[in-house]
Amino acid sequence: MEAISHAGTVIGILSKDGIVLAAERQATSALLEQSVGSEKIYEMNDNVVAGVAGLTADANILINQSRMIAQRYLLRYGSPIPVEQLVRRLCDLKQGYTQFGGLRPFGVSFLCAGWDSAFGFQLYQSDPAGNYSSWKAACIGENSGNAQSILKQEYKDDEADERAAGTSMEMDDAMRLACLVLSKTIDTAKLTSEKLEFATITLKCGKPHIDVLSSAEIDGVLKKYEAVLKPSDS
Fold first, then answer.
1. SS3 of 133, please?
2. Which residue of 123, 154, 214, 225 has the smallest Cβ count within 10 Å?
């Protein structure tokens, strides 16, 4: 749990049109060359994307296992695996490592965002013990308590709909809220694309589409919501 509490912040926000994942890259040294690929956000399947906080090596093992689970399901049934079923199978694996001596739990938490035809867009959070729960907005990693408080205050929920998936938030509002939370929780003078990762999952032509934003696209997002970020710089 200590590795998770010191890891870069990861935020997931559910909207009626999709889900936004935003993550903080933590540079351990100015001499460290930044990787070109994603460090905090990974595609688990064509319909599921995940943000991780904790030990990267443990995350890589679990991500590879989740991809195998998803492909076995696709081979057997000819359709994408339901989001909750993939999360549950992954959490079963994590929970198994807490039962026996000589094994240590995986030191990583996940925010899994996905879509399936049964329940639409879904956002799940899981911990090293194998517990998981469904959220409309969630945060893991460093300063997750402060981020969760901001999300609770600022998230626009559809109170008229008591179902878990009911929300009136638009995708643009979700992206704006993600920028706001990051600006208030990350210990930096200014947000830049070098320190952030963004991904979205939406529907295109009735099928889930995962888009991991490039550095130029992240710069465009930060410029678009510059008014939201200004208060944190003062």
1. strand
2. 214
